[in-house]
Amino acid sequence: AGGGAGPQPVLRGMAGSAARVLLAALLGALPAAAERELRFRPPAEDPVRLFTEPELARYDGQQEGQPIYLAVKGVVFDVTSGKEFYGKGAPYNALVGKDSTRGVAKMSLDPADLTHDITGLTEEELKSLDDIFNNVYKAKYPIVGYTSRRILNEDGSPNLDFKPEDQPHFNIKDEF
C-alpha cells in the first residue's frame, strides 16, 4: 500500500533473469511484514539539528514530557535522562535551554555566567571545561545538535573550524 516500485529498478542493470531469480530468493526469504518493516523503517534516532538561541530555550525543562537540552561549547546534549539534576526545580536547571559553557567552566549558576562566552577564563577554568565536556557530557549524554553560533560565524558564513564530536551514535554523513 503505497511505497513505489520496490527494489526492481535497482536491478535493471543486472542480467534480467538472474536479477529476477535473486530478487525472488531474497523476497521469498522474508515474510511480507518483515519486508515492509525493512523498507519503511524510520531512522532509529532523530537527526542532529542546528539550534538558534530561541529554539534551544524551548528545551529548558519547564514542560513535562519535553526533552531537556543543554549546550556546552556549542554542542547540544539531551540531558533528559538526568532530569533529577536538570529538570524543573532541579539544582542545575539554570544551565539548560541555553549554551552554558562559561557557567560549566566556572562551576557557576550565576545568570551572568550562563553564556557561551569564554572570554577571560583562566587556564584552570578552561581545563575544567574540557574535562567536564569530555568526561561528563560527551560520556553520558547524546548529542542532538549544535548551536548555530558553533557552525556559523557572526556574519552567517560557515565556521571552517567546525568539527563534529566523536559520539558513537553520531555519523556525520547521515546527519548533514
Descriptive report:
This protein is α+β, with helices and mostly antiparallel strands. It has a domain at 50-151: Cytochrome b5-like heme/steroid binding domain (Flavocytochrome B2, Chain A, domain 1, Roll), CATH 3.10.120.10. Helices cover 36% and strands 9% of the residues. It contains 8 helices and 4 strands. The protein has helices at residues 16-28, 32-40, 53-57, 83-86, 101-106, 123-140, 148-151, 172-175; strands spanning 49-51, 69-72, 75-78, 143-147. It has a 4-stranded mixed sheet with strand order 1-4-3-2. The radius of gyration is 23 Å and the shape is globular. The two termini are 30 Å apart. Residues 1-30, 34-44 and 166-176 have low confidence and may be disordered.
